[in-house]
Amino acid sequence: MEGVSRVDKTEFTECWQTSWKTPYIMRLAFSAGLGGLLFGYDTGVISGALLYIRDDFKSVDRKTWIQETIVSMAVAGAIVGAAIGGWMNDKFGRKKSILVADFLFFIGAIVMAVAPAPWVIIIGRIFVGLGVGMASMTSPLYISEASPARIRGALVSTNGLLITGGQFLSYLINLAFTRAPGTWRWMLGVAGIPALVQFILMLSLPESPRWLYRQNKVDEARAILEKIYPAEEVEEEIKALQLSVEAEKAEEDSIGDGIISKVKGAWSNDVVRRGLYAGITVQVAQQFVGINTVMYYSPTIVQLAGFASNKTALALSLVTSGLNALGSIVSMVTVDRYGRRKLMIVSMIGIIVCLLALAVVFHESSTHSPSISRFESSHFGGNSTCSSYLTASDASSWNCMTCLKASSECGYCATSPNIYLPGACLEVNDATKGVCGAEHRVWYTKGCPSKIGGLAVALMGLYIILYSPGMGTVPWIVNSEIYPLRYRGIGGGIAAVSNWTSNLVVSETFLTLTEAIGSAGTFMLFAGISFLGLIAIYFLVPETKGLPFEEVEKMLEKGYRPGICSKEKDAKKMDVDPSLS
């Protein structure tokens, strides 16, 4: 079995050797992978743009639910986009789905850039979300179907690399426009450029050979396969496609080819259902480890850790985004040496440890934040002091965090030059903020001065390092190769919808959770959910490293049990059926 017997070198190395001999493969992967860049850019850009949207629209700054809606409406759009994308992939092909995704993303970027009010930004975010949802499941599918099995994992990882690269690029662009007129408009509008570039590139690329063969366009499929595979392997691949398509047509005769029939058929088919258990598990776990609280709200979390400046928050967030991109490169190198399953399990264990450590750090930071001084608070005049503080019966026990949690109308003005000494609890408005700044003091509304704030940022960086090579990229690889050909579009669509639904829940509730149970409680909650995700991955997700699609299907027919992993692994090394070993 090709690609499994070679255990002495990584698929990543072979990927580069094959791509050097056949650059057409890399061209396909890179052009389709720009969908990942769009996905990543949108994830990252809103985190920085939100800081300046809050400055321009006071209603957004005062109301947490509007901030969450601006962020999460793209996710809601992505849920619909992923659902439609699954159907479009099967009906019209992978290429056309990517072109439609680019068009929607471009329109959304323009709408956001010219938005005169928050509700228009929300409409633009919905359009962008539709495009991102389609691209998120179509790009890895297109890449996997246009890749030789022996280097498929590494090439699909390029999609993950471009996702994290898009996030890193978004933070760079956010920093570049911090002093430009219109700040957030430029940040959001620039997103239309990669969508336009991918649209143009995809016009010159072919459809997926597997989809073409399914449409009885055998000659077109063969022509593409001849560009991808060595001449001696083309006939073997054509025969494999023929067997898959014949089985697919036989099954469609019994269940129908409509989307509802396919969904019912998918859940009633033992192989597909087991694939969906694995695919949905890894996609839901990817979101409920809390990654997009870091990516969507990274600058806000940095401010919660005690760094008040927008620019400082963006700069520190750039570091975490860069580590995310670095982790994707690590994934490309390791995913086919160590396998999908092992990377995810190790990643989840590290994530849980980091989340628990973040919970402890934020708890300590909150508990030991600077106290409130009545003298300092009255220093700026009675009308400037926060009314909640003035009327509190326990005002003498207040600290910075108590002040900020008391009301959205309360802010903290730190003492200068030592920000850790008792400070002032003041009303939140431009005049008070200006007076505080005029005395060279630091103004806080999201977090408090903390001596261990740097540790929180370091733990965020470690969290990203442990997340990115495993849970960051591997779930998309698993979903690109775990379903039979006849259900690959609908299976990927169901899993992508579960991913985006989980994303929506997390992004729509994060700020509310931090207000209700605090940052420490929120990270503790994510740690608990991550532990459940680890257990689910251990019992439901098989290893698919180096297996052709047909072998994955055979493995799922028998059912997966984690207790027989070592037996399967040994059998694969000898290139024999595990049931015969």
Percent of residues in helices = over 70%
Q: Name the helix and strand elements from N-terminus to C-terminus, one letter apiece.
A: HHHHHHHHHHHHHHHHHHHHEEHEHHHHH
As a whole number of angstroms, the C-alpha radius of gyration is 26 Å
Share of residues in strands: under 5%
Q: Say how many strands there are.
A: 3
Mean pLDDT: 81
Global morphology: elongated
Strand order across the largest sheet: 2-1-3
Oligomer: single chain
Number of helices: 26
Main beta sheet, described? 3 strands, antiparallel
Class per helix and strand makeup: mainly alpha
Distance between the termini: 16 Å
- State the low-pLDDT regions, or none: 1-9, 564-581
In short:
The chain is mainly α.
Q: Topology of this protein?
A:
Layout: H1 11-21, H2 23-56, H3 58-62, H4 64-91, H5 94-113, H6 118-145, H7 152-176, H8 183-189, H9 192-203, H10 209-214, H11 218-228, H12 231-255, H13 259-268, H14 270-288, H15 291-304, H16 310-338, H17 340-367, H18 374-378, H19 387-391, H20 400-406, E1 410-413, E2 424-427, H21 430-438, E3 443-444, H22 453-472, H23 474-481, H24 488-540, H25 549-558, H26 565-573
Helix pairs in contact: 1-2, 2-6, 2-7, 2-8, 2-9, 2-15, 4-5, 4-6, 4-24, 5-6, 5-8, 5-9, 6-7, 6-23, 6-24, 7-16, 7-23, 14-23, 14-24, 14-25, 15-16, 15-24, 16-17, 16-22, 17-22, 17-23, 17-24
Can you walk me through this structure?
This protein is mostly helical. 75% of the residues lie in helices and 2% in strands. The chain contains 26 helices and 3 strands. It has helices spanning 11-21, 23-56, 58-62, 64-91, 94-113, 118-145, 152-176, 183-189, 192-203, 209-214, 218-228, 231-255, 259-268, 270-288, 291-304, 310-338, 340-367, 374-378, 387-391, 400-406, 430-438, 453-472, 474-481, 488-540, 549-558, 565-573, and strands at 410-413, 424-427, 443-444. The chain has a 3-stranded antiparallel β-sheet. Helix 1 crosses helix 2. The longest helix has 53 residues, at 488-540. The two termini are 16 Å apart. Mean pLDDT is 81; it is low at 1-9 and 564-581.
